[in-house]
Amino acid sequence: MLAPPMALLLELTHRCPLACPYCSNPLQLAGMKQEMDTAGWREVIRQAAEMGVLQIHFSGGEPTLRKDLPELIAYTRELGLYSNLITSGVAADEAALDHLLACGLDHVQLSIQDATAEGADHISGYRNSLQKKSRFAEWLKAREVPSTLNAVIHRQNIHNLPAMIDLAMAWGVGRLEVAHTQYYGWGLRNRAALMPTREQLEQATAIVLAARDRHHGELVIDYVTPDYYARRPKPCMAGWARRFMNITPTGEVLPCHAAETIPGLVFDNVRQRSLADIWNQGQAFLKFRGTEWMPEPCQSCPKKELDWGGCRCQALALSGRADTLDPVCERSPDHERIQALAEQEAAQGDDAFVYRRPEKVVEDV
Ligand code: FES
């Protein structure tokens, strides 16, 4: 019997005040009128609990823009599931946070774009973003809310990594996630403006290792390294269709946030098919689950049940096929080319961003 997913990521909305150039949402955004209603999301949570899912991550866009977020969190608590709010921290006021906590919110993941006001505004495309996030972080600290700070780093903010670690300490979060940018969707479009140099990467890694020692017992630091400079692929999503489900604002159920980029996959909608059925039998979930789909040399690789073949979306983006080796792997014929590409873009890439702007939201597809 197939184990249920451990967690569901609910993208309640694509609406967001920020315009980050590495946004994980698709290039084609869903408009507010297309979003699933409260009853639809409640049904998703109910089915998740029935399946044995443990965690619900409320994400977006900016999930606090949904007026029914307190109700959905309260329902999650009522069914005994753990809730995590993934937020930019710029849209909710103090009373709204208190309301969410009163409804049973368990954990908050707050994002920052940089450690300086100027850098944060430039990267997020939103004025006074750091000031607002700082205020939100103080509210969390005053209430001792279990929190994680998420810092996406790249060529244009990596020099401020020590200051980001200082912010995490000052804000009293228990965990800091330092994540090099992933290049899908908007991130792929802005890759040349974001790619760090190898030297920057090495410095950042040394800074993280030193900070882990310095703050041992006070701050846990997770570190997501940049794929393009790696020799081994990451087990993306902990393996395709093994642990997670992603639900878009319109109710489509995906094995990962970028899966819609892969041609030929069929995405079921939770409004038409049960979550359990989609998890067990959905075409998109079966396509790359396990190891049978793997080509050689993955098939005979002793690490195939550790990295699960890496990332399918990255294989497609960089090698043109989703069913081939992730080019991050040094056994891929494209590996050397990708490393050279990273170095070239880091050295010569234009710093100008293509922002994700709210006016790009499509209202009537
Ligand atoms: Fe889709 Fe990695 S992002 S498999």
Automatic annotation (TrEMBL):
Record GO biological process: pyrroloquinoline quinone biosynthetic process
Pathway(s) where this gene product acts: Cofactor biosynthesis; pyrroloquinoline quinone biosynthesis
Residues the record lists as binding [4Fe-4S] cluster: C16, C20, C23
EC number: 1.21.98.4
Metal-binding among keywords: yes
Cofactors, names only: [4Fe-4S] cluster
Cofactor note text: Binds 1 [4Fe-4S] cluster. The cluster is coordinated with 3 cysteines and an exchangeable S-adenosyl-L-methionine.
UniProt keyword annotations, A-Z: 4Fe-4S, Iron, Iron-sulfur, Metal-binding, Oxidoreductase, PQQ biosynthesis, S-adenosyl-L-methionine
Gene3D superfamilies per UniProt: Aldolase class I (3.20.20.70)
GO MF term list: 4 iron, 4 sulfur cluster binding; cyclase activity; iron ion binding; oxidoreductase activity; S-adenosyl-L-methionine binding
Catalytic activity: [PQQ precursor protein] + S-adenosyl-L-methionine = E-Y cross-linked-[PQQ precursor protein] + 5'-deoxyadenosine + L-methionine + H(+)
InterPro entries tied to this protein: 4Fe4S-binding_SPASM_dom, Aldolase_TIM, PQQ_synth_PqqE_bac, PqqE-like, Radical_SAM_PqqE_MftC-like, rSAM, rSAM_sf
UniProt KW Nucleotide-binding keyword: no
Occurrences of domain Radical SAM core (ranges): 2-218
Pfam family, one: Radical_SAM
Subunit structure: Interacts with PqqD. The interaction is necessary for activity of PqqE.
UniProt record similarity statement: Belongs to the radical SAM superfamily. PqqE family.
NCBIfam families assigned to the protein according to its UniProt record, in alphabetical order: PQQ_syn_pqqE, rSAM_more_4Fe4S
Cited function: Catalyzes the cross-linking of a glutamate residue and a tyrosine residue in the PqqA protein as part of the biosynthesis of pyrroloquinoline quinone (PQQ).
PANTHER family in alphabetical order: PQQA PEPTIDE CYCLASE, RADICAL SAM DOMAIN PROTEIN
Protein name: PqqA peptide cyclase
Organism name: Frateuria aurantia (strain ATCC 33424 / DSM 6220 / KCTC 2777 / LMG 1558 / NBRC 3245 / NCIMB 13370) (Acetobacter aurantius)
Name of the encoding gene: pqqE
